[in-house]
């Protein structure tokens, strides 16, 4: 199935929120709205991945996940895309490199919850990601301490932008990262699947 390539205007700063979105939920929408506000982004793209290399169980079909994600987020600055499948990339570092080649005049910021920062050092080429694009980290329930004490946070501590200066992230040069505390919604895709509320 073909997925349209999103449009990016020259000079636009685009936040990238990757994941299986299996299913997308209000927690994803909440941190997206917060990221737009806190980090001075022009847009956010939800990168619905073909599959998460760190998960053994395969996700629901791509078309179903994209349809659900579009139903969850209805925002003029947010685009839901399956471009990773189109690009043929499997890992975040590969996706970022491909997007930078495809959109040389756009600027990208990688977005993730604090739970992902805690295990970021397990990602393929994680240092290359941190040194290629600025990263915006949004607090999630129960993960603040483990994220701040993580290997990545320790290694890149000199490049941290304080939360009160979060608007500087969009124009920062990597490595640069900013951790912001946001009003949290304790909802997860795994809990939704476990409840039986999501089947595709």
From TrEMBL:
Annotated metabolic or biological route of this protein: Cofactor biosynthesis; NAD(+) biosynthesis; deamido-NAD(+) from nicotinate D-ribonucleotide: step 1/1
Cytidyltransferase-like domain boundaries: 16-194
One Pfam family matching this protein: CTP_transf_like
Enzyme class: transferase
Reactions catalysed according to its record: nicotinate beta-D-ribonucleotide + ATP + H(+) = deamido-NAD(+) + diphosphate
A GO term, aspect molecular function: nicotinate-nucleotide adenylyltransferase activity
EC numbers on record: 2.7.7.18
Entry's family note: Belongs to the NadD family.
The protein, known as: Probable nicotinate-nucleotide adenylyltransferase
The organism of origin for this protein: Sulfitobacter guttiformis
Higher taxonomy: Bacteria, Pseudomonadati, Pseudomonadota, Alphaproteobacteria, Rhodobacterales
